[in-house]
From TrEMBL:
Source organism, top-level taxon: Bacteria
Statement: the UniProt record of this protein carries the keyword Transmembrane: yes
Pathway where it operates: Cofactor biosynthesis; adenosylcobalamin biosynthesis
Protein's membrane topology: Multi-pass membrane protein
Principal subcellular localisation of the protein: membrane
HAMAP family: CobD_CbiB (MF_00024)
Keywords, alphabetical: Cell membrane, Cobalamin biosynthesis, Membrane, Transmembrane, Transmembrane helix
Encoding gene per record: cobD
Function: Converts cobyric acid to cobinamide by the addition of aminopropanol on the F carboxylic group.
Transmembrane segments: 52-74
InterPro entries tied to this protein: Cobalamin_biosynth_CobD/CbiB (IPR004485)
UniProt similarity note: Belongs to the CobD/CbiB family.
Cellular compartments annotated: Cell membrane
Protein name: Cobalamin biosynthesis protein CobD
Length: 331
């Protein structure tokens, strides 16, 4: 097996593993990383951006280094390299868990059990469930599905195509650090600044690819592109904006508006103002769109990896041919 096929085969195996197995109930690698990052935070925490940057470097850099060491150890065997890539992909993507949690909330809302839906919502996002009615919960789920399609699936595949196993682990480490310390609580406003900014940079390509694929796969490409262009820049997040706006346009719904986090109310701009209000049935539509986007992202990422490696091999082949011709001429 040629080296340029390692990521394509491994990422496909990993995404199939996520589809069939989902996340383990105990001992998930991301949870293990989270505990390690929490331990490092307890040692390094100071109310200072510099110490927060050091925390980011130690944790994210450690994940990248671990991936690089593992990839180097597996490199002599193509089979081992594919298996390692597949295991890393399965460990960092979370499309099945995302779909499962979204559908669980949707089922509770369909039966009219709003309290059960409120209890389940924190598995998806950090909003105050008690501040939401049924329609508000449904909107929160659709927004979370959209944003996490980029964070939990597409972004990881993009960085896997760019950097192999170190790219996969590094992206998930950065994204996890942002979730842990990248918010504006009093403890993390300064300490988490570096993690939040690095997550913005790392998430940029995956978010744009997610928005593009949502437009292509959502059934209303024109509406998705229109909402993306008109409303994405109004969102406070440079990456969630394009993704949520494109999903809103593709699904024909309105997203955004008043949100409540930790007792703090935020008034965010409405995305796709021409759309209708979200209903419970839109949760399943968003999950299906997320699935399609994930598989399309696999195709794009695997194809880009194959193309990149073939282009990189071109000069090497020409150099080898030149050496052979010179050797023959000298003889």
């Amino acid at each position: 097996m040629r080296a340029d096929r390692v990521f394509a085969y491994g990422a496909t195996a990993g995404l199939l593993g996520d589809l069939l197995l989902g996340d383990p109930r105990r001992g998930h690698p991301v949870a293990v990383f989270g505990r390690a990052a929490g331990a490092v935070e307890r040692v390094l925490w100071r109310d200072h951006r510099g110490w927060g940057a050091l925390h980011t470097v130690v944790c994210a850099g450690g994940a990248v280094a671990l991936g690089a060491v593992a990839a180097a150890a597996a490199r002599p065997s193509r089979t081992a390299s594919v298996a390692l890539t597949g295991a890393a992909t399965w460990a960092v993507v979370g499309g099945t868990s995302l779909a499962r949690e979204a559908r669980a909330v949707g089922r509770a809302l369909e039966t009219g059990d709003v309290e059960a839906a409120r209890r389940r919502l924190p598995h998806l996002c950090g909003r105050d469930p008690q501040a939401l009615d049924a329609d508000g919960i449904a909107r929160a789920v659709v927004e979370s599905v959209a944003e996490n399609t980029s964070d939990a699936v597409v972004g990881a595949l993009v960085w896997g195509a760019l950097g192999g196993v170190p790219g996969l682990l590094g992206f998930r480490a950065v994204n996890t650090l942002d979730a842990m310390v990248g918010h504006k609580s009093p403890r993390h406003r300064r300490f988490g600044w570096a993690s939040a900014r690095l997550d913005d940079v790392a998430g940029w390509p995956g978010a744009r690819l997610t928005a593009l694929l949502a437009a292509a796969a959502g059934g209303d490409a024109r509406g998705a592109v229109r909402a993306w262009r008109a409303d994405a820049g109004k969102h406070p997040s440079p990456n969630a904006g394009p993704v949520e706006a494109s999903f809103a346009g593709a699904l024909g719904v309105r997203l955004g508006g008043a949100l409540s986090y930790g007792g703090r109310v935020e008034h965010r701009p409405v995305l796709n103002t021409e759309g209708r209000a979200v209903t419970v049935g839109d949760i399943e539509r968003a999950v299906r769109l997320s699935r399609r986007v994930g598989w399309l992202a696999l195709g794009v990422s695997a194809g880009a990896s194959l193309l990149r490696d073939r282009v990189a091999r071109g000069p090497a082949r020409e150099l080898t041919k030149g050496r052979v011709r010179r050797s023959r001429g000298a003889s």
